[in-house]
Amino acid sequence: MTFAAPDSAARPLYALSPDEYAAWQEDATEMFRAWASAMGFSGASGQVVLLPGPDGQPAAGLVGLGSDEDRARGRFQLASARAALKGGTWRLETALAGEAREEMALGWLLAGYSFERYAAAPAPAAMLIAPEEVNAARLEAIAAGEALTRDLINTPARDMGPAALEATARDLAEEFGASCAVTTGADLAEGYPLIHTVGQAAGETRAPRLIDLRWGEAGPAVTLVGKGVCFDTGGLNLKPGGSMGLMKKDMGGAATVLGLARMIMATGLDLRLRVLIPAVENAVAGDAFRPGDILPSRKGLTVEVNNTDAEGRLVLADALALATEEPTDLLVSMATLTGAARVALGPDVVPFYTDDDRLADRLGEASRRVADPLWRMPFWAPYEEMIEPGIADLDNAPSGGFAGSITAALFLRRFAADARRYLHFDMYGWTPSPKPGRPKGGAGQGARALFDLLSEGL
């Protein structure tokens, strides 16, 4: 997922709206005009036409961008051209500039992703020379972070359990000179009782752990907490088979914070970064936690378990409590947390929660700028009573089914209450069907918008 080296023999790739196509026709050769017309090219979004040279090989290419309205409804239009071009090296010719040009270039890189762990690599893809006026190294770092996230989510739980997630964090720490500490066993049970309890039924080879990565010595302190449930059976509240099929992606929050950490470290942002990942498998065994149990937490709050399938907020709670034990300028949690978020906003748009209006506004602007769709949801205070069961401090799964994403966010906020600024993402982490730059499978969400915000400074 990199750009090609400059090449004087690179073929031109014209990215054109319908109006720009009309202007291009005026300057094009008669053969190119005739060929494009015969192929029905109009500049409509998603159209790709290869223009032949005298030897029959492609000499240039046309990509339709559609109207301004089409571009507002979609993203990464250039990405759809990469597979159609088959191969070769290309140089982008477009009137678009600034953020639009960067989005096109990033979409091209993201379209170069393929998951190759279990199947043969695809044929060599077409390559693009970095367009003028884009920061190629930055875009390549973003694409590499996204590729890491996708790889982690796409890997089946058999090969991506808590130990494998730890190994990934340690490899990342070694690559960028970070530190990585891991808490397991009796220390985990004593210091992080919720993490230990959720993961204890998975057995020794898939034992729960808390991963703690640190990098950077100057700048604002930013702590990223990612839900690392490597597989979620639902526990004793066992999921039906149809709901369990995608549960390898339940560590999508952990995968996303690791991908974001890679972006931050690779570009050398002026931050003191901390990444916390409670890594567990929610399994079924004789020592699994039960509905009706009341569990202690690191923060001292007690939690009544009314559904063992609402385990993500439990493991995040202990990690958030740890994060607030030292000063931090921004605390972020990212998690594939609730089906309610998907019902509300679908798979593409990620709800986020914060009490900081300025932070929300800046994140919304970043979301639009880098085509990483987010939508602010409220920490709705009147719903606090829904997470208070009466016989314990908190309820992990309020009855009634209302406002599931909001009540989960309110639950987490109780454990992040001492943070200066807290930001929570309730993500899906998966692309259900292929789209430009986003193949079916694991997906990072919210990371690019947050990276853009952090790059501008807190």
Automatic annotation (TrEMBL):
It comes from Palleronia caenipelagi. InterPro entries: Leucine_aapep/pepB, Macro_dom-like, Peptidase_M17_C, Peptidase_M17_N_1. GO terms for molecular function: manganese ion binding; metalloaminopeptidase activity. PANTHER family: LEUCINE AMINOPEPTIDASE-RELATED (PTHR11963), PEPTIDASE B (PTHR11963:SF20). GO terms for biological process: proteolysis. This is Leucyl aminopeptidase family protein. Belongs to the peptidase M17 family. Keywords: Aminopeptidase, Hydrolase, Manganese, Protease. The keyword Cytoplasm does not apply. Residues 307-314 form the Cytosol aminopeptidase domain. One of its GO terms (cellular component) is cytoplasm. The keyword Hydrolase applies. Transmembrane segments: none annotated.
